[in-house]
Amino acid sequence: MKILIVEDEAKTGDYLRQGLAEAGFTVDLVRNGVDGMHEGLSGDHDLLILDVNLPGLDGWQVLKALRAAGRELPVLFLTARDQVEDRVRGLELGADDYLVKPFAFSELLARVRTLLRRGRVREAETLALADLQLDVLKRRASRAGRRIDLTAKEFALLELFLRRPGEVLSRSYIASQVWDMNFASDTNVVEVAIRRLRAKVDDEFTPRLIHTLRGMGYVMEIR
Amino acid sequence: MTGWRHSITLRLALAFALLAALVFAALGIYLSRSADRHMAELDAHELLGKLALARHAGGNERSPAALAARLGDALVGEHGVIVAVDSEKGAIFAWPDAGKARALVQASAAVGETPLPLEVAGRDYRAAAGAIHTGWGEEARVVVARDIRHHTDFLDQMRRDFWLAVLAAALLTAGAGLLVARRGLLPVRAIAQAAGRISAGRLDERIPEHDVPAELDELVSAFNAMLGRLEESFRRLSDFSADLAHELRTPIHTLRMQTEVSLGKPRSVDEYRDLLASSLEEYERLSRIIGDMLFLAKAEHGLVSPGQETIALRGLCRRLVEYYGILAEDIGLELRGDEAAIPGDRLMLERAIGNLLVNAIQHTPSGGRIVLAIAREAERAVIIVSNSGPAIPPEALGRIFDRFVRLNQESEGSGLGLAIARSIVHAHHGTIAVRTGERTTEFVIGLPLRVAR
Predict the structure, then answer these.
(1) Other CB atoms within 10 A of residue B266 CB
(2) Which member of B305, B329, B413 has the closest CB to residue A186?
(3) Distance between CA atoms of residues B426 and B300, nearest Å
(4) B277 at the A interface (CB within 8 A)?
(5) Start-end ranges of CATH 3.30.565.10 in chain B?
(6) pTM for this structure?
(7) Model ipTM?
(8) Over the stretch A42-100, which tens digit does the pLDDT of each residue have?
């Protein structure tokens, strides 16, 4: 998967590139709007990450030019200003998603993956990792053949992990996906919820599947 | 060029002058008219007297010579008077001489018993004429005229004097108006000076309201009220900066210390990883504080405009109870009440009510109980978050919605939750209040059911 980043702030751009490359993407980075437009028009990228404040052409103009030329690649825009008008404008111009700086890198990664996955694969009806199994339609979970009773939200949380194996999920991402809570909160609701889920699906089993990445969030994988 | 338009003093002075000139001119015209009329009446009186005399004498005397002698006697000492008595046979009497009398008779053919102005030999007269039946049986005509030159001279002089007086009055009132207006506008100058003394550092300056003229009262109190509001916003702004600096200093200090100490000697990869993770947590805290502070700052300046979608409060509250209920492990958390739909911003209302729930959870002892209740009133929806627990101390009650107030010192929160809740409620034109008793504390939000205009 090839991603184009248009970001003029040097450090941000470099780390975005490094982070996405280490997550397995092929990444091109340009540092102004004009280059961004050329690359976007001529390249074969699958996704564009676009900063709004750019020297020369700003993000809106780049986006407009791309859409006018019929380039339909998904666009995720980054803005430093959390203004409703900004968001509305971006989405009206044909952006697919947005993030307000400062954001967690894991959040960006999750959004990027969602955008790239969109409309590509049919969501699986049964999910499994190691000896953990989830039947999405029947709302059943089991591990090592033992049935596990989960509340609706615990089930949704486990499903989210199983659909994203190996991906770091930040607390705010989890809160928004499972509970539809979309504002930054300084409570530890997600921590408590994960602790309870672990008690049911991890504590009595090996290997452990849910891991904590301090400061970043949680990941489900076989280590 | 437009200076005069903008100078109240000058305009007042000119208006005064114009007014004085108009009044004096009107008065002058009136007086000169009455003087005119009065003089005419005096002349008429005299002329008619002379006419009556001539008639009386003419009726009594038996010969023209006797009439002439009698009239001559009666007119002795009269100056500026012409009298002529003519019969068909010729002149009977002429005063003061025949030449003048003839001129008068020639000029007065159209004159009757009503006195009329008449020019005789280049001079202004007033004249009247009448018929006489003489004692000797003849029909005669008598014409009398009065020289009115000294009257017209007097009137002309009076008019000249009057125009001078009008001019003088205009100039005088203009000058007086200038002085009065300037004096009257002194308080305005005082206001300007007070305004000039005001600067960011001296916003406590006020214009004294006690010795201000009634007309300027409103201006001065409006001005002072404006200063009050400015001072208040300015104070809030500086408090905001001070709070922000203080709150940011702590996490930055932590970051700096741990980074410096860690770099002090070589460490294992795990230790570095720990350091970075710890830093990340502090960064997250920093960005949350900044985000929250920005939200509050925008809200305080009315820059937060909530969306107006229809929000079903019960569904929203149920999701909040479900989410935050995870934190309330040994606390009973219950949702009660009816459905109520209000116009508002879902994200913001979730945040406001969520903050109240978190606050309640933090202050409820284990085994306690929290109720989130929704009620519908005529004009508004009421959301009540009540929790069991000790009362809020009275000294904290007044500032409970202020920034960075943490009643519970060990609390992890930023101390912005209730301030943000209040801002959001106010942005929705709602009300928020707190009631505290010995066993329960209640936060009550009222939100209008219809879009406030």
Answers:
(1) 8
(2) B413
(3) 9
(4) yes
(5) 309-448
(6) 0.62
(7) 0.75
(8) 888 999 999 988 888 888 899 999 999 888 899 999 988 766 677 778 888 888 888 88
